[in-house]
# Entry
Amino acid sequence: MKLKSLATLALTGTLAAGPALADLVIPDLSYRTGPYAAGGTPFSDGYQDYFNLLNARDGGIGGEPIRIIECETAYNTEKGVECYEATKGEGALIYQPLSTGITYQIIPKAIVDEIPIHTMGYGRTSAANGEVFNWVFNYPANYWDAASVMVNYLLEENGGSLEGKKIALLYHNSAYGKEPIRTLEELSAMHGFELSQLAVDHPGQEQKSQWLQIRRERPDYVLMWGWGVMNQVAVQEAANIGFPMENFIGNWWAGAEHDVTPAGAGADGYKSLNMNRVGDLPVFEEIKTLVHDAGNAAGDGSNVGNVLYTRGLYAAMLAAEAIALAQENTGKADIAASDVRDAMEMLEITAARMEELGMPNIGPEFSVTCQDHGGTGLGIVQQWNAADAQWVALTDYIAPDDSVTDPLVAEDSAAFAAENNITPGCL
Amino acid sequence: MSADFFYGIEVVINGLMAGVLYALVALGFVLIFKASGIFNYAQGVMALFAALTLVGVMEGQVPFSHLINAIFGTEIHHFGWHVPALLAIFLTLLVMVFFAWCVQKFVFRHLVGQEPIILFMATIGLAYFLEGVGDLMWGSDIKTIALGLPQGGSLWLEQATSGLGGDDFYGFFIDKLDIVATLVAAVLVISLIVFAQYTKQGRAMRAVADDHQAALSVGISLNFIWVLVWSLAGLVALVAGVMWGAKSGVQFSLSLIALKALPVLMLGGFTSIPGAIVGGLIIGVGEKLFEFLIGAPFLGGATENWFAYMLALVFLVFRPQGLFGERIIERV
# Structure
């Protein structure tokens, strides 16, 4: 796996020296090393395996081969920006930065370079306003949607009222972790629940103070915005103090297999959001036959079907669909990044199409417009079954409360437009 | 007495337990610095590497399997056996001794007489190298330590003390893993002290720590002592890696536990084993109490990281060598 990454980097260097090839170039800003590798590796495996499948099965997209350029960021913002700069000249069609920090840094660059960024369920939430963020897309859902979906789920669980309930937000003390606070404060005022906030400093290895506070205050629910080691420690600490795990809900970056397995049986019942369904998909069989058995797997194959692998696959599918639409719109196979951006604004993902692609119900149905780059914001709630070591979907896709999130998106994006002298409008 | 009073005591007890875990990491730094004057930046990565190796050996994982598979097109991952815990710990220690030997043979032997900053830089290189080797050998996925260490609060203590502070007090919470870590740390420190005081190698180690030239002049092999010291630091790293890894799973962020040791070293001094222990306890209690009394109620929480360093800085201003460090007196 590591050798493959090194070989890819070496190949990248070689190719950079030669003339640009007429391929569909897709950079993969991955992180297979460092403290967050456990999350970055399966996503990247899924992302690459899908493009490798298209190459093996269809000769690429529209007959044009796909060239993946993997660049290791180690989830480090500076390295991520270096990767962006190093790969954009290759004819990159779309970026999936897989880091909120990297996303914030490359948004201004991508606007100038005219390359679309897709930040699926992360990044700058107000990028959902397509009239301000012409080159940034965060469909099918964003952080504020996630906060609202969590509260809507709890409303459903509590007969439509959270009046007088105590909800604690345990969050990574970073820009990422603070994202849901504003939304939850609005929802707290609207639904009458008491919101307490508990920050956990990076990296989150030591959370004794926060969990002793939770033990003292006995909130009805704990919501978590965590990433990396913070997730594993939080689940373990919750089990240690005997907090009811069914009342502990993480966001979709705190709901992978590796977040719960270290706590063993103690993690049983822990819940998290997900923007994509998990489970066996017909496309996995094709990947095994045409990619893995042919020796073209991005990883060692052990991640196939897990939460983050499936999310990477889903992200790749959304990128591939946009590229195919761009080819259809322009009538040519060899397209430019701006063609992909235009297509992303017209993207429509239907149940029938997902079924046709061998990924039935992998995500919600949604369509993108110039005004709305954020999709429907739907999410499911899943629960960890420790005995079977698998996530079980508890709900169908739950909608966020747009009446709360839309004004926040409008406000934040207007501030960005004012700061950057952007006149909102469609391209 | 009010529930808050008892919760304050609970915070102090848990702070002491956390301090023991910080001290475990700091001990490795002290051992190497005392004997060789090297500030070992790689100590946190050594804890990670030792824990990775222990889990890999126990699970019968083939080292470098990803590399082997990529080169030869094979699909090997495991030998198919499970190694008993004690044997795995012994084998891991052998690996750490081998690592210590390599460090001495290939790095520090060639840097004798260099400035401390050069030696420090060498340990930075060593840290990144070891992290990469750990990744190549055992992979980057999160692993579970199956040593059967207890987890969760002590229910007995919780129930026995639940009536102390009225209805709002739910009894003292103490994590059983922290109790085990405290006992293990106590055994480790006593063993190190006994080793240093009552064995030939221990006395030689202390002699080298006092004066390299004088130790050389009486026939003590500096190379041997440094390998010995790095091996002991490897043992401490293994213990720290296991205790921290039991909380979060063995993963690459384990290397960041070194950050928790720095304020302990600043406070306790770089050359004192008791200093590392007392420093750890002060930092542990200080940061937890500050978070409980001021951080969480008034400052929005997450004060522990910076408060630990601030506390250490205050000590540093009044006692630069740390609480137990040796006073540096230079006569003209």
Chain B touches chain A through 49 residues (CB under 8 Å). The first helix of chain B runs from residue 3 to 36.
